[in-house]
Write a structure and sequence with these properties.
This protein is 82% helix and 0% strand. The protein is built from six helices and no strands. The radius of gyration is 23 Å and the shape is elongated. The longest helix has 46 residues. With 181 residues, it is mainly α. The protein has one domain. Helix 1 crosses helix 3 and helix 3 runs antiparallel to helix 5. The termini are far apart.
Amino acid sequence: MTVPVWTIECPIDASLGRIASRTGIARQAGQLVCAHGAYLLPWMLAWWLVGAASLGGHLDRGWLTAWTLLLATLVPLRMAALWVQAKLAVGAGAALKERLLVGALRVDPDRVSGDEAGALLGRAIEADAVESLALTGGFSAVVAVLELVAAAVAIGAGYSLWATLPLVVWCGGAAFFVDRG
């Protein structure tokens, strides 16, 4: 009977960047950015189409059909973006668990020998919470930045580049206060 064996391929002191490159997380993060960008492009184009047609006074069946077709393309593009995000979540979760395992193996046994079961369970629950928040917060941050860039492009294309200034100032102020918090 064969026994499965797992190995930790990176050394203990490997950086997160090295782990990310070994597991392909960096490539999958690029795919996530591209997939979400591919989703945002027809979304913005569909609303530009309706806005231009209605404000131009020539809204007819052809414009509405084009708008409907653009909206129909959003479904498979969103599914693709969610699929890439799920693949990235699994890979990043595995890398994070591996990193936590390496850290747990480095802990001095004498330090935790006096801890009770509740303290050890609390550490395990906290590690799970850190993984969950890191992954969901990271994806939300990437998507939010992409949507802010898309909003700036839409505002700049619709009015002028100066019209994006309040958005840039607001985002800069929010980043400043979040960093200080």
